[in-house]
FCD domain-containing protein (Devosia algicola), 478 residues
Amino acid sequence: MFRAMNRDVAPAETGAAVIARQLASAILRGEYPPESILPGEIELATKFSASRTSVREALKSLSAKGLIQSRKKAGTSVRPRADWQMLDRDLLALRLEIGPEHSFATDLLALRQAIEPAAAAAAAQHQDKAAIAVIAAAFAEMEAATHDRTRFVDPDLRFHKAILAASGNEFMMAFGAMIEAGLAAFITISLRHSGAPAPSVPLHHNILKAIEAADPEAARTAMETLLSRTKSNISQDHA
Amino acid sequence: MFRAMNRDVAPAETGAAVIARQLASAILRGEYPPESILPGEIELATKFSASRTSVREALKSLSAKGLIQSRKKAGTSVRPRADWQMLDRDLLALRLEIGPEHSFATDLLALRQAIEPAAAAAAAQHQDKAAIAVIAAAFAEMEAATHDRTRFVDPDLRFHKAILAASGNEFMMAFGAMIEAGLAAFITISLRHSGAPAPSVPLHHNILKAIEAADPEAARTAMETLLSRTKSNISQDHA
DNA sequence: TTTGCTTTTATGTCAGACATAAAGCATTAT
DNA sequence: ATAATGCTTTATGTCTGACATAAAAGCAAA
């Protein structure tokens, strides 16, 4: 019946996407600083051995992410950093690639410490049973994969995303990519030390229990505790 | 010398941008629900009386904002809501247009209550003198415009953005558009009641003083107090 | 029913042309 | 000398038509 079940796979990267990523990378690296003017579209097309059409589509992407702004005759300029949508999935991935990793991890963690306790408290308050069931399901998978570091990552991420969804706040959901990037950075850093993975299952359990018990303050505290643990794991990297 | 000092003005909206906004609006309104397939590019071009080129550039923008995803032969589909970059400036503006206003305002305020106290604490901690001077400058303008509601908005926004910048966290800066939208929604709502504007100048002053005094916890508390005040102003709208 | 081939189709890319607005320059007027 | 005016240039914006490509859908054989 369903020969191809790949409805969810990402499409292969095509020309315009490659150009977009290279230009975005150059901008993030500071090769084209804010207020500066990019090369003209024809020049870029030559540089990337592509048509002007593809270059323009790439520029449209960057424009949508707040990196650049085009004006007739004046050319395409890099916008101030404050306008960059740094929480965008693609930009986060680029930023991690470029480094430095440590400030990336600590800055993202600081954001997580601001957002996730509030989301957990909201989830405990909001009591969306279906959404809470998703959290519980993710937790069950985490328990099952306690000793397998690789298999643990995926349900861990789903656990945190499910809490955002359960918050009932339509904007909280937008932080999924941020958490994903934060986890990725954390893994990168902690793998360097090959230290034993912290036993975070009980900490996650406390969060789930507090949300199920409709106890916002307990949920907030439990999430704060988990993230503090993560933070100390990162900090020892810098030392 | 400088006949045209309009380096900072937004370019006039052109065809592709209009198409992008109309499609994004339709998606946000649920006219094209997640997982559904948009009309083909040629059909869209006919519908908007534009060329396929313009339609494609519009779709590229939406794709960059996480709203859609294109696959060869299969068409362009709407992505799940969790992938939407709802903190994007344009999407926030659309969301406010579409309504409902009240949940927009309360959800955004909940986010502000998570982010801004943390940003204020980080700013007090980080002690970037130049950035703190920007906060102080914005505050001075707020004081000068206390009695003029219209003139007050601009320095108020700059005050909050300057705190994000002073946090020293490269990702905190990305919330400028969110705060802007939150303020705009708050103004929309509070204007309906034409109630006397709350005297928030002293509350802002407390935040500034705490940051200058390098007292993170005081800064956090002062920001929390200000936002609680805002919250009660919004709540009375719903009642 | 499954497997493998073929056709169809919607997106992806290209090339060339023209439209448009605004920056830059030269000219003129004050 | 400075400021207003108009012309020219130029880079982005749009349009058209064509071809490339990958993958879904359909067909046929095993």
Residues 1-7 of chain B have pLDDT under 50 and may be disordered. Residues 89-238 of chain B form a domain with the Four Helix Bundle (Hemerythrin (Met), subunit A) fold (CATH 1.20.120.530).
